[in-house]
Request: fold
Amino acid sequence: MGKKKTKKKTAKKATKKKVAKKKTAKKATKKKVAKKKTAKKVTKKKVAKKKTAKKVTKKKVAKKKTAKKATKKKVAKKKDNLTKNLEDSLLELLRVSSTIIPDDVQKVVLKALKAEAENTSAKYAMDIIDANIKLAKMKSQPICQDTGTIIFKVYHPPGFYKQKFQKSCEKAVLKATKMGYLRQNSVHSLTGKNDCMNVGGGHPQMHFIEHNKKTIEVKCMLKGGGCENVGAQYALPYPPLNAGRDLDGVRKVILDAVQKAQGKGCGPGTLGICIGGDRGSGHVHAKDQLLRKMDDNNPIKELDDLEKDIVATANKLGIGPMGFGGKTTLLSCKIGHLNRLPASFYVSISYMCWAYRRQGISLKSNNTINKWLY
Ligand code: SF4
Reply:
């Protein structure tokens, strides 16, 4: 009996232990489940946080993109404005160059007009020239039917983008031609075709010169064809005139060119001269002298004396305006020089007619006109 009881008790205890173990196992399982739930919640929170962060990042990226687009638009607008301003400024430069004789030239023309005697052909010619100048200015119409070669001299700071600038010059020429400020007279040399645009094959003529200033300056010259035809180039010594390789020889050939130009080239004229250089650079430098102001003085005394002597002597030749006789054959003479080779000594002569059309502008940083140079 005693043994049976003890066995039963032991079995009960074992059962209790099992039950207790089961309870503990259940509790452990519950805890695990709770832990898992908590872990899930944490994971969910983390995912949600990540999603929110992603959304914020997306928003930031979108904002940045919008800002970038806005900046790009602003930059493009600024560039558009700069281009438009440049084209407008160049158009105005062309209009003024073509229709208004610069003040320094006008002064000399008026002086010449007063110098001619009343009731002479010279006076008549000068009166017509004067009336033409006034009418062109008043009506904003070309001073002469011959537009001439359009020459741009662009003085720019280092790091300047030339191609774009040239395009703007060409656009301005096209517009000025359409608006009637420039006549349509640029012709294809092989076909003779005039495309009526004044643009093509080296026209307009572009010269870019780097200078030390931060600003851009543009000079424009309209060089007539009739006066270009009487330009000349002599190689010294020149035996027909007994002209040697010195300033006296230079003087002789210049006066010879003036004689040969009489009745042609629409005088009274102005001479741009280059002593030296080669055949090409000599002519370019001679034309550059025409960019000087009429009333300036040559810084080289011998050349200054020669300039004045040439004008005084030419005006005693009796050729006069348009070759009609009179006191005004030349309005001015400007002489420059370039180095030459020992083997050659050129004197290049550029003749500018009375329709002395040249102007210049300096540009502001936004490409509008800051000031006029003549
Ligand atoms: S030479 Fe001068 S004035 Fe004579 S037609 Fe030509 S541009 Fe006119």
Observations:
- The beta strands are 149-156, 205-210, 217-223, 232-235, 269-276, 330-338, 346-352, 357-363, 369-372.
